[in-house]
Amino acid sequence: MNFRWFAPLCVPCLVLNAAGEVREEILVEVNSHIITRRVFQQAVEQGTATLYREFSGQELDAKLRTAKEKTLQGLVDSYVIADKAADLGITASDDMVRNYVEEIKKQNNFATDADFDKALKGSMGIGLPEYLTRQKEDMVKQEVLRREVFSKVAVEDQELKAYYEEHRADYKLPGRFRMRELVLPKGVTPEEQADTQAKLAAIQAAFKQGTAFEELVKQYSTAPSRSTGGDLGWLNKGVLRPDLETAILALKPGQITAPVATDPDIYLAQLVEEQLDIAQPFEEVKAAIREKLQEPKAQTAIEAYIQSLRIRANIRYMVPLDLILKG
Q1: What is the pLDDT of residues 212-225, one digit of tens each?
Q2: Which residues, other chains included, contact 275 with Cβ-Cβ below 8 Å and sequence gap of 6+?
Q3: Which candidate, 66, 80, 10, 78, places its Cα nearest to that of 39?
């Protein structure tokens, strides 16, 4: 249960400056922290602006009805989690935050901090300094939850394996194949063309008699791959021109295609190996599956954990909750 205490006679608690002048009204005290009306109103304005960008109609109305209460609870929770982080010795360095921001800038093609700052003000209504502060707080919060909740949410190995088998298609790799190529020029003059046809006939006859294709490549091919016996390594499906790829994938490993004419060359190709229906190995995706299965289990555990922090915290509502939400 989240205990709430109210100031006597609902007299507001005020922050005064050195001259005794009223500066701000305190709405809630959370341990040694305070939530003022200005801070609360700013958070509400930023939150509702986001809702207006993301929702509309009845869905927007429903979100707006609970926005204030959720915003206030979020502010309270941020302090109780921050205090727990301090107890655990969890911090986020400026370098960690800066590295995160640099990655965001890179992903979104922001050349300078000024560009990023302008974008933040347009989309979130905050500048870069406040964004850095929020990211540091979020990093700390996520580490508290990871250490205190996620790491303790058990997912058995048989669950992981069962999920992998049921969702194997999600981890399917693009089809790929290995091939060797032998390239001959078509020729421009009738003599050159006849020479090419004679070489093709000789190559095909030698292959039928058991000569290794890579040896024929080294003897006849004019492509740079000649030095490696025409081996192009692993290729993903869709890389080659469709007629050549179709001809290659119609083969069994070791077979060669009929001549495939392109401009200005003629190709013979050998299928070495193919992998057209494979998935990432279970061990490679095991950690990602564990995280995916932990997520729904952790949501209930997170709420229970944060509720336990609220119970232990000294949370004092200096203004009744209903009046805060009406204001």
Answers
A1: 999 999 999 999 99
A2: 173, 175, 176, 177
A3: 78
Helix or strand or coil: residue 154?
A: coil
CA neighbor of 282 nearest in space, from 156, 150, 162, 152: 162
Q: Kindly report, residue by residue over 7-64, the tens digit of the pLDDT.
A: 333 334 555 455 555 468 999 999 999 999 999 998 999 888 888 888 999 998 888 8
CATH 3.10.50.40 fits 174-275, yes or no: yes
CB 198 within 8 A of CB 208: no
User: What tokens appear for 261 in the block?
Assistant: 């004419």
Q: What would the DSSP string read from start to end of 52-100? A: HHH--HHHHHHHHHHHHHHHHHHHHHHHHHHHHHHHHT----HHHHHHH
The two three-digit tokens of residue 84, written as one number: 């727990």
Q: Which of 302, 266, 306, 319 is nearest to 24 (CA)?
A: 319
Question: What is the Cα–Cα distance from 29 to 79, expressed in whole angstroms?
Answer: 10
Q: Tokens at residue 318, please?
A: 């200096």
pTM of the model: 0.58
| CATH fold of 8-152+298-326 | Triger factor/SurA peptide-binding fold (1.10.4030)
Task: Show me where the domains of the chain are located.
Answer: 8-152+298-326, 174-275
- Amino acid (1-letter code) at residue 75: L
